[in-house]
Amino acid sequence: MHIERIDFDEVFDVQPGPGDFSFRSGGQTHYAVNLWRGLIPQAGSSYLIAFAKPGDWSTVLGWLDLQTGTRRLKNNTWLAVLSDMTAIAWLAPFLLGGALLFIGPGAALAVLLALCGFACLRLYQIASRGRRVMRALLAAHAGTPSSVAG
Hints:
150 residues, alpha+beta, 4-stranded antiparallel sheet, 3-stranded antiparallel sheet
């Protein structure tokens, strides 16, 4: 994870619905970036942005607005959990049915326990990543000079 301070000197080419925009910061121009659906930073605002890969706007994990203190994760934790659990729910009947039909009840029970264990592991990983991103943003915010004034 990489935290970077972005000063939005100028914001242009705004697409308010999907939240796509272009901006200039420190003499560099970035085109067609997206923080979150419908979120367009104001010109003159500063954000701390957490990237999975430095400078790669397709890997934004979360951000913190230095003026307002508003912070958000790019992907909603509960939606990610729901997505993973839906995939498991679609897969489970086939795995359980196959194990029960071809191997027996003991194997079906083992498959059920493995699916439950996998679901718990994914829940923990998703929640843990969200907490790590927020902690990193808040720690970076505590170290920025503008955090004292704002």
